[in-house]
Amino acid sequence: MAANATPAQRASGSSDPNPTRPGSPNYVLAVLVLVNMFNFIDRNIVSVLLQQIKEDFQVSDAQMGLLTGMAFVVVHGLFGVPIARWADRGSRRVVISTGVAVWSAMTALSGLAWNFITLLALRMGVGIGEAAGTPPAHSMISDYFPPERRAHALSVYAMGLYLGIMFGYLMAGWMGQFFGWRVTLIAVGLPGLALAALIAATVKEPPRTTTVASHPFFEVIRFLTGRPAWLALLVAGSFHAAVGYSINIWAPTFLYRVHGMSYGELGTWLGLLTGVFGGAGALMGGVLSDRLGRHDQRWYPWIAGIAALAALPTGAVFVMADSKWLALTSFAPLIFVIGLYTGPIYAMNQNLAKPRMRAMGIAVHLLVVSIVGGGIAPWLLGELNDALRPEYGDLGIRYSLLVVLAIGTLVAAAAYATASRTIRADVEAARQ
Predict the structure, then answer these.
(1) Residue 17: helix, strand or coil by DSSP?
(2) 8 Å CB contact between 289 and 344
């Protein structure tokens, strides 16, 4: 490639004779997929072990919802903003490798927790470490890949989420069944330390696609909140995430309580279905939105909105099914359409921000989305489980999930429709 090529042209890797060499866009993307996979293994593994931990520490569903939701996502979101600021100003490679080392160590130490409060504190440490994952990774990918390939690249990155959930379900299901939750957390956390070393040794910081220095925090906030489409995406992402987080966190407990599945059985089925269909949905969403969005930016929110609406009927069948086989069969299309929106919404966030605002922009987005969708929703679902238990017993969880599905999908679809009205003008403003 010519020496005077732009950073975005160099980053596209289209003429790279060896696209898998360390430092090439494809290699870096593959490593970042591993980062995202380890991120979600460590983040979601507790959801399969939830019943064991609950019984060991003798706590309520509401407290377990706090452990898997608010305790994690509040610190995750709050620390994400200063960490993203660091990423926009410094080396994203250093930020990511440090984060992987921190969250992996905290996951392993969680297996040594001697009471619920200790485990809560260590899970907060996992949340702090994982705040160094997605914002700098999105920023790095956006500098390695040009706009017309960005949603596709980000959807490939998002596949790590579903691979992480898949391996987390499988490992937690079988290891939890035979060795218990403590050994499982230790065994899952330690390999991440090797990944941190690999990142530090082989991943190269890409050239920035702008020579502008990083923007002050309040300048970033003023610019982003001045984009109506970005504000609509905050609402859409929060309620859409409420659906995704609630399913990922509570589906194992739902299948254990309502359909009597063993830990190994539910871990196997949920793991395989999530990895295959969730990953396929994430990839499909990125490919479709890049292909159609090339001609009209409105396709990005339209595809995400369609995915939100499609999750309601498939999710209703999943939670109300009388047999475990019908529930598992309906889980496949449910997790597919949940995965469908990740590429479009990530690409919209990157396209709506100026280059030196990208890590900060997605960090602020994730702060709000994580608190509402990943913190409040699972905690409220646990509270609702406890409230319904006197009348419905273990079946109360199916009605809790149905309420979250209905509210989350309908509000998200309406907000995506709102974003589509101004997204073309708002993306153009970010390019100026």
Answers:
(1) coil
(2) yes
Contact (Cβ atoms closer than 8 angstroms) between residue 290 and residue 299:
no
Taking the C-alpha atoms of residue 367 and residue 370, their distance in angstroms, rounded to an integer, is 5
Residue count of the chain? 432
3-state secondary structure of 233: helix
Q: Which residue has the tokens 């430092």?
A: 23
Distance CA 98, CA 83 (A): 11
Amino acid, single-letter form, for residue 189 = G
> What distance in Å separates the CA atoms of residue 277 and residue 368, rounded to the nearest whole number?
27
Count other C-beta atoms under 10 Å from residue 404's C-beta.
Answer: 24
Distance CA 416, CA 235 (A): 9
pLDDT of 417 reads 95
Using one digit for the tens of pLDDT, what is the confidence trace for 77-102?
778 778 877 877 778 888 899 999 99
Task: Supply the DSSP string of 171-212, one letter for each residue.
Answer: HHHHHHHHHHHHHHHHHHHTHHHHHHHHHHHH--PPPPS--S
Q: Tell me the whole-structure pTM to 2 decimals.
A: 0.70
Please give the average per-residue pLDDT across 123-131, as a whole number.
84
